Every structure is written in structure tokens, then in C-alpha cells.
Amino acid sequence: MDLVLDNFRGGCLETVIDRLEDYDLSLVEVNPPRKSSGTGEKRVLDIRQKNSSSSNELIILYSFTEYN
Known about the structure:
Shape: elongated
Radius of gyration: 13 Å
Strand content: 35-45%
Distance between the termini: 35 Å
Helix content: under 10%
Number of strands: 4
Low-confidence stretches: 1-12
Number of helices: 1
């Protein structure tokens, strides 16, 4: 199955491609890293796919968080 990425941002995607190879994705958004204030956790990567029933809704397929 093909993984087609649009709007690719961030550098951590290669660590999760193998976990997503079973999906047939046509539109994916990878959000950039961001820190959570005060909790010490950092969201490293979100991969989202547009919902087929609503062109404006994004579904989180994968979310990786680091805890410091």
C-alpha cells in the first residue's frame, strides 16, 4: 500500500513509516514538534489523515510524545 504525504513537515517520520505501511493513505499531514508548557512533555510527531466523510476534519493516525 502507498503512503502519500502532503504538507510534510518535521524530521521524525522515518521512525514511524513502518508502523503505517498497512494503511492506504491519500492525504496525510505531519505536524511539527511542539512543547507542552509546564508538563515536561514534548509532542514530537502527529500524523493526520483527512476524514473521507468530511473534507475539513482530520483524524490523528499516530501521535508520538516524549516525556522529559
